[in-house]
Amino acid sequence: MRVEVLGAGIVGLAVADELARRGYGVEVVDPDPGRGASYAAAGMLSPSAEVWHGEQALLELGRRSLALWPDFADSLGVRVHCTGTLLVGRDAGDLQEVDRQAGLVDSLGGCVEQVDARTCRRLEPTLATVAGGALLPEDHSVDPRAVLGALLDRVPVQSTSRGADLTVIATGAVLPQPYAALVRRVSGEVVRARTDDPPRRTVRGWARGEAVYVVPRPGGEVVIGATSEEHDTAARVTVGGVARLLTAARELLPGLDRAELVETTARDRPGTADNLPLVGPTHEPGVILAAGHFRHGVLLAPLTAQLVADHLDHGHLEPTTDPRRLLEPR
Ligand code: GLY
Hints:
Helix content: 25-40%
Strand content: 25-35%
Bound molecules: glycine
Radius of gyration: 20 Å
Shape: globular
């Protein structure tokens, strides 16, 4: 069976790679490979820090996929940075956000340790004085551009479709018809900077009510993100968005003041009506979705690849991700 995967982001490439490993003839189609949302992504493998109320099913998917990441990364020759994530609150009001998130993670059975202000500074000596925090030891990170590079070395990509027996749609925030309305575009602006004073681990926090994360890479690059805005037009970098991110990041990590500004990027996240991804069959024979990953495309890529391949191999259906839950019955 010849399979065509539309979309060469981390999700599409991971699906193609897994299908090729299982013996399928696969082609990936993308006129601009690796330049969509995966290119902007900070690469947090962070089921806990990003979970929201009512998202138990998403948390479970995130945990399952996180468990697949070490082998997936090994197979690509990239590193997972297993340093955990520190949530911090700059002032007493910000600390309430930390406590709310920590309480939520705890109530969902996740691993979370409350830490006082002094311990925050011991864990991250470059932090400003903060009101307190919480450590999420299981939330890690990976460099999505390294992952994209490794996948693109293995998976050939064509710029136009040549037709196939089966199509997997993995085109992120812009799906072809009749699936376009299944996702809403939620733009995210991200700043990359280089510093000689990076945090040791991902720092996520609130500073005077503004949410921000700072994800370090080896070599001094930090990824500062991300704005979040629902809209109809394509994502773009705005002065206000970058200013808010940098102000919040510098409030938490004042040493960033001296960092070299390297890049600003904006891309759309593909949100769905229930914030769960769309992975599985449609009502159209031979058309499968691997889409709608919202804030979790990098985290959920290896699980998505397995779910698609398991569906092709033996018809496996994952009820929480089955796209037909959001499609009109035929
Ligand atoms: N997962 C990070 C973000 O969507 O901003």
